[in-house]
Amino acid sequence: MFREWGFLIGEMIALLILAALAGLLAGWIIWGRRNSGDHGDGRVAKLSGDLEACRVAIREKDRKLADLEQKLEASHNRILSAAAALVEGDESDFDLTEDPPDENTEARKPETLDAPREEGPDDLKRIRGIGPKLEAMCHRLGFYHFDQIASWSDEEVAWVDDNLEGFKGRVTRDDWVAQARHLAEGGETEFSKRVDEGDVY
């Protein structure tokens, strides 16, 4: 007798579960159709808003990534400059901080070129403190040759120092003018020799 009750109770539970599932399925079909009919435009608007928010987030992420890459390149160049200074025995130039240009010097933009001369641009990377990205930035500013940099006055150095985005103060700290003057005269430095030998870049 108890076995029959157990069987009946099991069947009742199974039927209740099936009825509940059928009710859920019917409700899902009814409400799903109603929502798709009544709120289709709202869903599209919400999805469009979400898509635009994602695009804004991606643009912001790309901007932050570019800033970080620029800072990384600046740090890399500072480390290379400091290492080169140690190799050359000049410990006074071992400085990994990014010093701002001298604010007491009035800045004046140097003369620039629209393009390099016929013989092509000089390899500005032979100047300690100028890496590939910084060389490209110098080209964008109109500086292609050692003799251009060698002729900069203090006021012009201040202008360039202030306009090297992400690399401010590099001209003064690495003494580009003295290096460029030596290279423009056909000389070499320990750093330029290492660049020529492919040991740096």
List the main descriptive attributes of the protein structure presented here.
single chain; 201 residues; mainly alpha; elongated
- Which percent bin holds the helix content? 55-70%
Quick check: average pLDDT? 78
Counted by DSSP, the helix tally is 8
Low-confidence stretches: 90-101
Tell me the distance between the termini. Answer: 91 Å
β-strand number = 0
Label the structural class: mainly alpha
Largest sheet, in brief, is: none
User: What general form does the structure show?
Assistant: elongated
Amount of beta strand: under 5%
Tell me the series of helices and strands, N- to C-terminal: HHHHHHHH
- Indicate the radius of gyration in whole angstroms: 34 Å
Describe this structure in words.
It is a single chain. It is elongated and about 105 Å long. The chain has helices spanning 2-38, 40-87, 132-141, 146-150, 154-163, 170-174, 176-184, 190-196. 65% of the residues lie in helices and 0% in strands. The N and C termini lie far apart (91 Å). The relative contact order is 0.10. The chain has 201 residues and is mainly α. The longest helix is centred in the first third of the chain and has 48 residues, at 40-87.
Short summary:
The chain is mainly α.
Chain-wise SSE layout:
Layout: H1 2-38, H2 40-87, H3 132-141, H4 146-150, H5 154-163, H6 170-174, H7 176-184, H8 190-196
